[in-house]
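Dear colleague,

As promised, here are the two records you asked about, laid out in our usual form so they can be pasted straight into your sheet.

NAME FIELD: protein one
SEQUENCE, THEN STRUCTURE:
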Amino acid sequence: MRLLQVLVPGEKRDDALRVLEDEGFDYVRTSECSDGTDAELVTFPVPTQAVDHVLTSLREVGIEDEFIIVSSIETARTPRIEELEDRFVSGQEEDDSISREEIRTKALNMTPGRVTYYVMTLLSAVVATAGLLLDSPAIVVGSMVIAPQVSAALTGTVGLVLNDRQMFGDGVLSLVRGLFVAIVGAFAFAWVIRTGAIVPVTIDITAITQVQNRISPGLLALVVGICAGAAGAFGLATAIPVSLVGVMIAVALIPAASAVGIGLAWGEIGVALGAFVLLAVNATSILLAGLAVFWYLGYRPMGWEPGSLRANVSSDRTATLAIMFVVGIVVLGGAGMVLTQHVAFQNAVNDEVRTVLAEDSYAELELTEVRTEFEDGGVVSDETEVTVVVRRPADTAYPALTSDLERALEERVDHPLSVIVEFTERTRAPAAVGAGD
């Protein structure tokens, strides 16, 4: 429920009150002449879903946004409030969307102070780094709970859709700086962990499941970023709380940023590059998905005229759209091509490994897992590592498997590969001995 206070000039009083009467709003009028002008402060309660509707109706009769206050209230009892609730909350005009003015304020109010934002980002990155190295999903989830990136991501998206360039710039810069702090914090923490021998220096970080999930991005990882941005926009634009949505956005960002730091600390540039591609794609996907959802919900820049796109594309809007277009092309175009190449590489490797293991000589083997190092197209290394984990009968050797896999995979992907085969033993439980034996 919202309480609206609107300053209505005397010459437009009758038109404004007629709008409220026609829409069925109960109101209170207070004379206001503190600045020597003839005006009234009209106060009336409305369902949250009706705020944008009534403000639009008032603008159509000439009421400007010079003095409008929208505040939250727990409840209201007026003669026609139940009719309004039936109409806007549970009737044909039901809509969870909040007003354009309210969504802007709501996004800005989510933004913590600069010190708080960066400290919480640093803490979440440290916790995520520990969780990744410990291979603990619970700790990684805990890092997402305290990450504040939802405020920057949604502030930037709201600024873009409302054509508030200052808000858009602040949000995007805050997001980029926060992720930079997360990467640096994760690197510093991982470097201390490694040089202090808290974990073995020779540990293969690519074999850690939680790290592997962030350094070898696939199309499903892209889906996470898109859904996170869409969920964040829906949460902010409706009466739904956004606290849980913040965790979803952090899922797509903080672990990937921490994986970049871990890769740098271990000197694994390919690991860092793979995680950075995932981070860049997810961050851009969050912004663009949020923009699409806000647009779908009907949010537009102030003064937007429906129907003609050409009439709405002013010079400042063109500049904003151009910036976003260039960023989208650079990030989604470049990183998307790398991501697509890696996904194609993964699919080719998986298919060829299954083909080799389908041969009669390997009929007793059971494929458990295939891990592929991030395929960077030769930017860091000309050779890509592939790890194949298979289950074999106890005490049975397969000395030719590694060379067979390496030869088949190199023919398939047409560049050098380093193949590692890890065996796990398959044992049979001893047969039960009968009582009479």
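NAME FIELD: protein two
SEQUENCE, THEN STRUCTURE:
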Amino acid sequence: MTCHAGFVYSEEFTTYRFRDDHPFNQMRVVMTKELLEAAGALSEKDIIAPRLATEEELSLAHSKKYIEAVKKAGQGLLTEDEGMEYGIGTEDTPIFKGMHKASQLLVGSTLSAIDAVMDGNVQHALNLGGGLHHGFERKASGFCIYNDGAVGIKYIREKYKAKVLYVDTDAHHGDGVQWAFYDDPDVCTFSIHETGRYLFPGTGNVNERGLKEGYGYSFNIPIDAFTEDESFLSVYESAFREIVDFFKPDVILTQNGADAHHFDPLTHLCSTMKIYEAIPKLAHELAHEYCEGKWIALGGGGYDIWRVVPRAWAQIWKVMSDQTPFQGSLPVEWVQKWQKEAPVNLMETWHDPPDAFKPIPRREEITEKNKKVLAKALQLIHNQKKFNSM
């Protein structure tokens, strides 16, 4: 199957930059685009130019007072006390010049992807500049100022009246999006992430199920630290298939953080590039089965920008456009260019070498823990199906 897909991109994505030593670095989007171009998989005809989100659109998921605070911060006019109230000026989310406009662009890029798919211009759209899933209505959090996923889903609900399944495979729980729709039965959120026992934001337990009319439409699978490929993918596929069949969405929106990889410096999961082939393949398959192909994919976390993120995110586009994941060696010219910038030795192949990582001694124990968490989640899905059929 050859699908018509769009790649949302602007060089201005790099203006979302807290400081030089901050782990959130949008150069990873530039590197991914150049990797795809060097591999002959992306051309100018595929590019969708993003727009800025309007303040009215931002207010779909953020309070007007918060938006004003972000604007003031980017102009150097926000006091320290005001900043603390809104989560701005913290170690995670420092103030930088022009932060409102830079954040507007990331939200607008997600809205551009949504319109392209929902208006029928493309079947799938990829916006690697988005996926900032920790932002709240009145507060910045976890490197995220505006929550483009939350704004985007509200936008879909208002403009297109479509049921949305949000799937988050970032190693960190997709808390901001979950809480934004915790009482909404027309938005189902599913997050598979490292347990919050050791990792920010500390939420995402199996028993976080929703509120009021939204009860039963929030699903979380917190997997154990040091989880490897096989266990991750088993849990992901089993839960995703059950949830999509239960909810039957009109459109799927995925957040594709690339921080579950063994190399990522901020998490404790131990996956390899294998999961980054499988994650988009399943999303693609289920989008066609349930949503007439309507699939919007966003970026997200991913803090080894040299060895992991470009390879992982390039696979999403390859699956979107022709379903055949990359194999073999990376383009030599791309490796040579970016090796001059990188503080580590770049990978030269799409897959990780088989001996790249030491075996995890607790593999069986971790796998068994994850099976038990999955079983609890699946039982909740089955219970909700029975309740809805009564």
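A couple of things worth noting about protein two: The first strand starts at residue 5 and ends at 8. The beta strands are 5-8, 47-48, 124-127, 164-168, 187-194, 218-223, 251-255, 295-298.

Best,
R.
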